[in-house]
Design a protein that fits this description.
Radius of gyration of chain A: 21 Å
Number of helices of chain A: 14
Shape of chain B: globular
Oligomer: heterodimer
Largest sheet of chain A: none
CATH architecture of chain A: Orthogonal Bundle
Strand content of chain B: under 5%
Structural class of chain B: mainly alpha
Number of helices of chain B: 13
Shape of chain A: globular
Number of strands of chain A: 0
Chain lengths: 374, 310
């Protein structure tokens, strides 16, 4: 009974963290002389007010979930992947290239190839920092951030030059975008909404990642390295290899997110030249969603929907009460801070629990809390 | 061919802007050196810089008083540092992740405030160059070093000051102890929490000044995300510099010179696409990390929260 209560409290922590973030956001709104109730009502309405709004929420949630799945793998392996942005970009670039090159092949073949290309592209972009961490001791937080910046410039270069839409190349505006994908290459959509097959794919993959992490040797080893690298080494696990694998897989899911974004939503790769022009910061927000979902692939599903809703609702909020959608970025940051700050109470309770029942050994069960102190 | 491009005037121009561009890197990286030496990784530098940049810009735009602008930026940075210290010291939050949270907060909040309070691109008062008497008249060198704005001088003066504090004072010894062996330092009566609060708040202040140097010295405007990764590079520079102020100075200069060169290449259009040129500093950071991290060892207690044993 007590343990059930404890796990309930653990599960409620992120919700409390969000409420705290919204409260701080409300204070900021009051300072800016905006009625926070009106603002949040507009946000809610924008995210869930109609079936179209809900579809948009799911559309936004899809890349967040895919990135979050990768983050679950990386953080469980105790490697910090901040490179989702860059991995998405590289994945999308490769997928787009496949889609624009093999135009004579059947639709399903090209889509599968393109998604695979996105997966592999992200894997390479995540694998490089993993390799540098394992073999050169380079802090992966820093290298993934740098890889983000490099990917953005590479994208800007390619979309303005070699990969630019031939139609745009003729015009003076020269919007950095590629040509449109053929209609047969587009992921099917639900009715008149923009909700596409990628959302279903993401949910399916969430289940797969859950199985990977808790039902396969590979997942077990990644988590073992994450929990205690020294013990893992004694157990005969090649720690470096699994470090690289964790980052590589993590990047792969972000790369897939980029590919899905192109084939499900935009049908072309397009940016506005800014760092988040293509990704819409999904590479960062996916981290927020994964942390919120306690680094559990299945909990990441509702978490991604929540943050998708915040993003979609923010646009409505901007229109109705003229609050810039940047508020939501600030709120996401606060959620991260509150979630990692609240871990201390969970650790304390866990410590007390272990002290209470010294006989029982904690097993590697699925609901084990994320290891947070490195 | 190469000689045509690198005339003396061009070289002086690149070096001059290189020195100026080093300013934000120096402020941020010296601050980060303090917090990392005490065992705390502050990854929120970029967010603190953005809020500092906005605060300084806004005060300068409203009042025209540059020193008031600097002061307000310092207060904003200290506040951010205080909150971050509470989160990392008292709540023992994982520093890599909470730093990203602070970054996102700074990114969103500075943009939100700018859009609500200013709206469109506005021009504010900014620091103009201060010519150091006599020295500024030295040919070449005078222009490169002694005709800069005041924040540039402050940033470079910080390096020896930081070196002195870290290596020649009791405070420096305490910071070092907190970062290497907090348990031992604690048993000798050093307040680990106190030391870390001090270094994180100092880091916040210097990051905010780094931001201010962008918005009211290097330029006179504020733009969303105008720090463009400088805060993250500054963190990397601390590793590169081996946690020593002089090493950090070397790294900052290397970076700013590459950046100055890169900007000049863009203007000249020397056959390298500008997007590829912009990439150079980031590629360099990674290479530099590969070359330096295996060489120097960082503070043993870096990123490890300290809790007293009962």
């Amino acid at each position: 009974m007590r343990s059930r209560l404890n796990s309930l409290i653990d599960a409620l922590m992120p919700v409390l963290a969000t409420l705290a973030a919204l409260a701080v956001g409300a204070v900021m709104l009051l300072v800016l002389e905006v009625n926070p109730i009106q603002a949040y009502a507009a946000l809610w309405d924008g995210a869930f007010g109609s079936s179209n709004a809900m579809a948009e929420t799911l559309v936004k949630a899809t890349p967040l979930l895919l990135v979050a799945l990768g983050i679950c793998i990386a953080f469980r392996g105790d490697v910090t992947n901040i490179g989702g942005e860059g991995q998405m970009i590289i994945g999308a670039l490769l997928a787009t290239w496949v889609g624009l090159t093999f135009t004579s092949l059947p639709g399903w073949v090209v889509v599968s190839l393109a998604l695979l290309a996105g997966f592999l592209g992200g894997a390479v972009w995540g694998g490089i920092p993993g390799f540098l961490k394992a073999y050169f001791n380079v802090n992966e937080i820093l290298s993934t951030v740098m890889m983000n910046a490099i990917a953005v410039q590479l994208m800007n270069f390619l979309l303005r030059g070699p990969m630019i839409d031939p139609a745009q190349a003729q015009l003076a505006s020269k919007i950095p975008q590629t040509a449109r994908l053929l209609e047969i290459f587009r992921l099917p959509r639900v009715g008149t909404t923009r909700l596409h097959l990628g959302a279903l794919l993401a949910v399916g993959l969430a289940i797969l990642v859950y199985i990977l992490l808790w039902r396969t040797t590979l997942g077990y080893r990644i988590r073992a390295v994450g929990q205690n690298p020294h013990a893992a080494r004694y157990a005969g696990i090649n720690v470096k290899r699994y470090m690289v694998l964790a980052l590589l897989l993590s990047g792969a899911f972000a790369g897939l997110a980029g590919a899905v974004q192109v084939f499900g939503v935009n049908y072309r790769m397009i940016t506005d030249g800014s760092a988040s022009g293509f990704t819409g910061s999904a590479g960062f927000n996916g981290i927020v969603a994964a942390l919120f979902g306690q680094l559990h692939p299945l909990w990441s599903i509702p978490a991604s929907i929540l943050f998708g809703a915040l993003l979609v609702g923010a646009n409505k909020m901007q229109r109705v009460v003229q609050v810039p959608s940047a508020l939501v970025i600030a709120l996401n940051g606060l959620v991260v801070v509150f979630v990692v700050s609240s871990e201390i109470w969970r650790r304390r309770r866990q410590k007390r629990r272990l002290a209470d029942e010294p006989a029982s050994k904690p097993g590697p069960d699925a609901s084990a809390p994320a290891k947070v102190t490195p | 061919m190469i000689a045509d491009f690198f005339t003396i005037t061009v070289l002086v121009g690149i070096l001059t802007s290189g020195i100026r561009l080093a300013t934000p890197y120096l402020f941020a990286a010296i601050g980060e050196t303090f917090s990392q030496r005490s065992g705390v990784l502050n990854l929120g530098v970029e967010g603190q810089m953005l809020l500092g940049a906005f605060a300084a810009f806004y005060v300068s735009y409203i009042t025209g008083n540059l020193w008031l602008a600097v002061l307000v930026a310092i207060v904003v940075g200290a506040l951010m540092g205080l909150i971050m210290a509470f989160v990392s010291v008292n709540l023992q939050a994982q520093q890599g992740i909470s730093g990203i949270g602070f970054y996102l907060f700074g990114l969103g909040a500075s943009d939100l405030l700018f859009q609500k309070l200013v709206g469109t691109v506005k021009i504010a008062n900014s620091f103009s160059p201060v010519y150091i008497p006599v020295l500024s008249e030295i040919p070449g060198l005078g222009e490169i070093i002694f005709q800069q704005n005041v924040l540039v001088y402050v940033a470079f003066a910080l390096v020896p000051v930081a070196w002195f504090v870290l290596n020649r004072t009791t405070l420096g010894l305490k910071i070092h102890a907190a970062g290497e062996n907090p348990a031992a330092a604690d048993s000798l009566g050093v307040s680990i929490a106190g030391v870390r609060y001090f270094t994180i708040i100092l880091g916040g202040i210097l990051s905010a000044l780094a931001g201010a140097s962008l918005s009211i010295a290097q330029s006179n405007v504020f733009q969303q995300g105008m720090t463009s990764g400088i805060g993250f590079i500054a963190v990397a520079l601390v590793y590169f510099g081996g946690w020593r102020p002089w090493g950090v100075l070397g790294g900052a200069l290397l970076f700013s010179m590459v950046n100055a060169l890169q900007l000049w290449i863009q203007v000249k259009g020397v056959g390298i696409p500008s997007d590829i040129a912009v990439m150079m500093p980031y590629v360099l950071t990674i290479l530099v990390l590969v070359a330096s991290v295996s060489r120097v060892r960082g503070p043993s207690a870096l990123t490890k929260p300290f809790e007293r044993e009962n």
